[in-house]
Design goal:
- This protein is mostly beta strands.
- The protein folds into three domains: 44 residues; 140 residues, YVTN repeat-like/Quinoprotein amine dehydrogenase (Methylamine Dehydrogenase, Chain H, 7 Propeller), CATH 2.130.10; 134 residues, no CATH class.
- Helix content is 7%, strand content 40%.
- It contains three helices and 26 strands.
- Helix 1 crosses helix 3.
- The longest helix is centred in the first third of the chain and has 8 residues.
- InterPro entries: F-box-like_dom_sf, F-box_dom, KIB1-4_b-propeller, Quinoprotein_ADH-like_sf.
């Protein structure tokens, strides 16, 4: 059979069901007619990959695991001198030894220019992320850098960034006036949500840096999973909603944060109530018993949300997470909000770092 004679509509139909970007690239490479048919329609949304924790030794590649195909992937690293600060929906954020920053799409090799880090070279470990502008184009999203005590963001690293009248630290970085330790944070819908080590969330307007609200932590469970358990909060943008997923952990016999405490996952949605026009709105976390057709992919502190409408054959109302419980193996689990059951999925033999959403853009 001459595969090049396959109707273009059928090629596009097949391409729309490929949820691993390398499979999509392989389809486009079959022949000229297939490449033309696939190029006439946007790539389908891709499921996240699991990103391996970089080793302490110089490495020339980055290791991933594809949940869609069950295959290990490897792509070139920028250099052995770059340290991974965090993943985004399409790029990885790196810093070199001189605190120069780099946003890299590891699939395409595309790089986005960034100003140097506002943190001094002697600062402790910093983390960061960038969430690209949503498809509806409501507002551009910044690059965010943070340590346990400071948080900076930068809008204008690309053309089209927001003009700013905010106090600027240097090279266009804006410092957020956080008063307490920064445990987690998330930029969402023009606001920065900064969670301290007590679970209290302070909400900043990203345009003015004014505090527009504060949210107490969700209530603790009636019966904690175990006496020494403590919780980790993952903030997850989902459309115009901000979700909070809580997992409970305990340390193993060596003091490592490796073991979670059973199927204790709780999901909350942030809601705003305006009581009086001259007062700040009241914010609160609302416990969700169902997340509908959504799938949440949760790391330790952040996560991603997808709709099963984009992934035929996948079940919604589920949370995917991972933990390391065997030597060099990261086990992937799927928690069902519907019946509270947790099942183990095929996982890679690697120390996972977090989820990464691949993109060909």
């Amino acid at each position: 059979m001459d595969w090049s004679t396959l109707p273009a509509d059928l090629v596009r139909l097949v391409a729309g069901h490929l949820h691993d970007p390398l499979d999509f690239l392989h389809l486009r490479a079959v022949c000229r007619s297939w490449r033309s048919a696939a190029a006439s329609t946007p790539p389908p949304p891709f499921l996240p990959w699991l990103l391996a924790r970089p080793t302490a030794h110089p490495t020339s590649s980055l290791s991933f695991f594809s949940l869609a195909s069950g295959a290990a992937r490897s792509v070139p690293a920028p250099s052995s001198s770059h340290r991974l600060l965090g993943p985004t929906r399409s790029h990885l954020l790196f810093s070199d030894t001189s605190h120069r920053l780099l946003l890299l799409n590891p699939l395409t090799g595309a790089r986005l220019p960034l100003p140097d880090s506002p943190f001094p070279t002697s600062s402790p470990v910093i983390q960061g992320y960038h969430i690209p502008t949503a498809a509806d184009g409501d507002s551009p999203a910044p690059v965010v850098l943070y340590s346990a005590r400071k948080l900076f963001f930068h809008f204008d690293f690309m053309a089209g960034g927001e003009p700013t009248t905010k106090p600027v630290d240097r090279d266009g970085w804006t410092e957020v006036p956080v008063q307490d330790l920064v445990a987690e944070n998330m930029y969402h819908d023009g606001k920065l949500f900064v969670c301290d080590d007590r679970g209290q969330v302070t909400i900043f307007d990203a345009s003015t840096l004014a505090v527009v609200g504060a949210v107490p932590p969700p209530p603790p469970p009636a019966a904690p999973p175990r006496r020494d358990a403590f919780k980790c909060t993952a903030l997850v943008p989902s459309g115009h909603e901000l979700l909070c997923v809580i997992r409970y952990f305990a340390r193993d016999g060596h003091g490592e944060l490796l073991e979670d405490c059973g199927a204790w996952l709780e999901v909350y949605r942030l809601e705003m109530e305006i009581e009086k026009e001259d007062q700040l709105p009241q914010w609160r976390w609302i416990r969700l018993r169902s997340i509908g057709d959504r799938m949440l992919f949760i790391g330790l502190f952040q996560g991603f949300s997808f709709s099963t409408a984009d992934f035929p054959g996948f079940k919604g109302d589920c949370i995917y997470f991972f933990k390391m419980e065997r030597v060099k193996r990261s086990c992937i689990y799927r928690f069902s909000m519907e019946d509270g059951r947790t099942e183990e999925l095929p996982g890679p033999w690697m120390h996972a770092c977090t989820w990464f959403v691949p993109s060909l853009s």
